[in-house]
Please model this.
Amino acid sequence: MKTTYNFNAGPCILPKEAIKTGIDALQDFNNSGMSIVEISHRSKDWEAVMNECRALWKELLHIPDNYEVLFLGGGASLQFCMVPMNLLNRKAAYLETGVWAKKAIKEAKAFGEVVTVASSAESTFNHIPKDFNIPADADYFHITTNNTIYGTEIHTDMDSPVPLVADMSSDIMSRPVNVSKYALIYGGAQKNVGPAGVTFVIIRKDILGKVSRHIPSMLNYQIHIEGESMFNTPPVFPIFIMTQTLKWLKKLGGVEAIRKINREKADLLYGEIDRNPLFKGTAAKEDRSVMNVCFVMAPGYESLEAGFMDFAKSRGMVGIKGHRSVGGFRASIYNACPKENVQALVNCMQEFEKTHK
Ligand SMILES: *Cc1c(COP(=O)(O)O)cnc(C)c1O
Model:
């Protein structure tokens, strides 16, 4: 297989052993003589996978007993409307820290009053706003903990006077989270915990049942809780790969261990960006994401952008083009991205510096 250094923002790199176990299960699941995608989702063997997956989530994130973990379809994008549909009675508050937050705000507006407590839009979302007031009469406060496109991250579990809802699509399982500070946490799996096709929702049960509108069954959290994420046919293969990914994470030492590794990787790359006169980071230092590292050519070197892209590509770097709204480069260094890959990118930046300074 070709050597690549995969820095894709999502779908992203996954542990090799999760992929390998997936290939085996696609061929013959548990010596059943059938593929995992051919068996009944009501079978004992499948039920065991669901139970294992749920148990791994609860164990790895120390999720308290009054929470449920759901595995749904529709991506994080469907949660942008499911959250307000299930929780917004009158008014909700949102922190606007990027494109994903904006999309969540847009969907919520269909269900009630939406207050944007602060926004960093005017500075291309290069930082997390710090000064804002969360209205005490809001039904919930919504944040995006990691802004995948802009490379900013909320590093602490913040206090909120109203139920806190977080889109953690791109930093879930990258660090410990104090789940009890949140009423609901959701995200698409494809950034850090699995392939596209499954969405995780961690939900504190007492926040439900407070809206009066009719909620269609498939969009109703309560229905999915009662159905144990099997109200309809679940995305079996993505859930299976997610389970293998979480097993890999557990073996590694869980979120406490991966946080240390992730910080080392991020320090290595940001260190090079700050040292190398050709490059410049785009996010405010205190808000720098541990997962998505955004950088551009430094002033005076702008004309070298295409040249560096070609140079990096020729050395096997994949997926480092920045999002069109930021430009430059973005290296996504999720859990399964080995430190050697980050080192390879750093070496690449250093070689490029030697030939172009
Ligand atoms: C990718 C992403 C989304 C969208 O996820 P889908 O599963 O594709 O709908 C939402 N929020 C954040 C923070 C993301 O990174």
About this structure: The pocket of pyridoxal-5'-phosphate is lined by residues 10, 75-77, 100, 144, 148, 167, 169-170, 188, 191 (CB under 6 Å). The longest strand covers residues 113-119.
